[in-house]
Design goal:
The protein is built from nine helices and twelve strands. By secondary structure, it is α/β, with parallel strands linked by helices. α5 links the parallel β8 and β9. The strands form two sheets. Strands 1, 5, 6, 7, 8, 9, 10, 11 and 12 form a nine-stranded mixed sheet that branches. Strands 2-3-4 form a three-stranded antiparallel sheet, with no helix packed on it.
C-alpha cells in the first residue's frame, strides 16, 4: 500500500514537472512584443484625402494626406501599416465594416455609407464644399437660393454626407463620371456651375490647366467634418481609437494637416505650369 502511494507521488511530481517544462518552452517561443499589422484604406480618386499613385514597380498604391498619422504611430507603437487600395471604393468601405480592414482614412458622420464604422473625434479636417464658375458669372451667385435657379454638375465618385445629399434634392444637378466632364460642361455652358470640394476641385482644375480660368465662390456652401474611422470589428479597435484621438487632440497636429493640404494645392498649380488646357471641343464650333 505504501509502495503504491510512493509511486503515485513520484508519478504526480513527474507529470507536474513535465507540464511546467512544457509551459516554459511555450513561453520561450511566444513573441514577447507581438508586432501588429494595421491595415488601412481610404478614398481612391479624391486628392488630397485619398488617391492612387504608382510605386517603383508600376503598381497602384494608396496616397493620402492622412497617411503620416498612421506611419508615425507605427514607429512609436511597433506597428506595420499596410495600405489597401481597390478600384471599387464601396468595397473598401464594406471590408472595413467586416473587420478585414482596421482603419479608413476619411469618413463623414451621420452618413449611411459609414454605418458600422467608429469615427474618431475630433475631426481630422473640414472639407469645404463650394462652387466653381466662369469668372464673368461668379457675381450671379450671392446665396444658395441663387444656385437653385441654375444648372449644376458634380462628379459621381465624390462622397457627401447624408445632410448635404438631402440638401442637394433642391438643386438641379447632373452627375458625371470624371472631372474632365465637369469642366467640359462648364466651359461649353451646358452647366452654370460645378459643385465640388474646394481642395479637390482646385487640384483637378490645376491638372487640366484651367485653374486660372475659373472662379471660386467666396463663401462655401457646406463645411463637412472629415474623420478617421476605425472598424468596430477590428481586434485593435480600442487601441487605435485611443491613439488616433490622442494625436488629433493636439492642435499642432491638426494645423499640420491643414498646412500640408495647402501645400499640395499649391504644388498642383506649380506642377501644372505649361500644361495646355483642353479646348473641350469648342474649336469645332468656331
Amino acid at each position: 500500500m505504501k509502495k503504491n502511494c510512493f509511486f503515485a507521488i513520484i508519478l504526480g511530481i513527474s507529470v507536474l514537472l513535465t507540464a511546467n517544462s512544457y509551459a516554459l518552452s511555450i513561453s520561450e517561443f511566444r513573441p514577447q512584443n507581438k508586432h501588429k499589422e494595421i491595415i488601412a484604406t481610404g478614398f481612391t480618386e479624391y486628392p488630397p484625402f485619398g488617391y492612387s499613385v504608382k510605386n517603383k514597380r508600376g503598381e497602384d498604391i494608396l496616397a493620402s494626406i492622412f497617411k503620416p498619422i498612421l506611419d508615425n504611430m507605427a514607429i512609436d507603437n511597433n506597428w506595420t501599416p499596410t495600405y489597401v487600395l481597390y478600384k471599387d471604393y464601396d468595397r473598401q468601405v464594406l471590408e472595413v465594416k467586416r473587420g478585414n480592414i482596421d482603419v479608413i482614412l476619411g469618413a463623414y458622420h451621420d452618413t449611411t455609407l459609414y454605418d458600422g464604422i467608429e469615427l474618431v473625434y475630433p475631426a481630422a479636417i473640414i472639407n469645404p464644399i463650394t462652387v466653381f464658375m466662369l469668372p464673368n458669372r461668379i457675381s450671379e451667385v450671392k446665396s444658395t437660393e441663387d444656385l437653385q435657379k441654375l444648372k449644376g454638375v458634380r462628379v459621381k465618385h465624390e462622397v457627401y454626407s447624408n445632410f448635404v445629399e438631402k440638401q442637394l434634392q433642391f438643386y438641379d444637378i447632373e452627375s458625371v463620371d470624371t472631372t474632365y466632364e465637369l469642366f467640359e460642361r462648364l466651359f461649353t455652358k451646358k452647366a452654370d456651375y460645378i459643385l465640388i470640394g474646394q481642395y479637390y476641385g482646385l487640384i483637378e482644375a490645376s491638372k487640366l490647366g484651367v485653374r486660372n480660368q475659373i472662379s471660386v465662390a467666396r463663401q462655401t456652401l457646406w463645411q463637412m467634418p472629415m474623420f478617421i474611422g476605425v472598424s468596430k470589428l477590428s481586434q485593435y479597435r480600442k487601441m487605435l481609437v485611443q491613439k488616433i484621438a490622442n494625436h488629433l487632440n493636439v492642435p499642432a497636429n491638426i494645423e499640420e494637416i491643414k498646412q500640408k493640404i495647402i501645400q499640395m494645392v499649391d504644388k498642383a498649380e506649380i506642377d501644372a505650369q505649361g500644361v495646355v488646357p483642353p479646348t473641350f471641343g469648342m474649336e469645332q464650333e468656331q
